[in-house]
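REQUEST FORM: STRUCTURE PREDICTION
Request ID: SP-0412
Submitted by: Lab K.M.
Chain count: 1
Length (residues): 277
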Amino acid sequence: MPMTRPLRRVLVRPPAATALGAWREYGWRAAPDAARIADEHAAFRAAIAEAGVEVVVADPDPENPDAVYVYDPAIVTPSGAVILRPGKAGRRGEAELIARDLEAAGVPVLARIEAPGEIEGGDTLWLDDRTLAVGLGYRTNEAGTEQLRSALPDVDVLAFDLPYWHGRDEILHLMSLVSPLAPDLALVYLPLLPVRLVELMRQRGIAFVEVPDEEFDSMGCNVLALGPRVALALEGNPETRRRMEAAEVDVRTYRGDELSRKGDGGPTCLTRPLVRG
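STATUS: Completed
RESULT:
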């Protein structure tokens, strides 16, 4: 599903207050405040709805704080969904949860990734409607990627090795490094992007807006395309915003001190697009 067509319908999952006590177990940076994180998620949903998007609100997960990052346990194509198997063990239960949510939203399940396969949505990047880039790292493996190829026989699934960066304990998804802004434009953090992917994107005529070093850790590279050159971004990365606006991108922001910064999940992570176009 091309990632910069106008977003029409999206699935989100609000945080559950009962799950927030497990923040250490799930690797969050600090304890989120229950009232503030709920308010931030409500404002985030409103920001998407204001763009004319139908927002499907799934039930919270009462035990898993990471379940708010609903991008990771599935990918959606025009024909239906592939339910993934997260590499993070604590997130494996999200697969059945999102399968039920998608079916309730009218999205059929095409296939499921099974053990020993591992793959997370944050490691998948649609370059066009028939080309899907997959980042191989600590959350996504070759077995999962091969199963995805079988599940999507009409799609060219291309695998790229991700860098070690800070190792197994710190999340680094492919989409930590690149966010599409338009068919011919992407927001990127070049120092960590796989060389073969950089060259492939350049061959396809995709220009880059580069995230500065000082705004990479604050998720400057994680933005959600609401449409071509319309982006929803986390507050607090002024230079990245300036560079996007210089490339004629309409940048809208939301506050995510609790929702995004403490759990390392930006606007892409918080959404599972269901319909674009």
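NOTES: Residues 7-276 form a domain with the L-arginine/glycine Amidinotransferase; Chain A fold (CATH 3.75.10.10).
Reviewed by: T.R.
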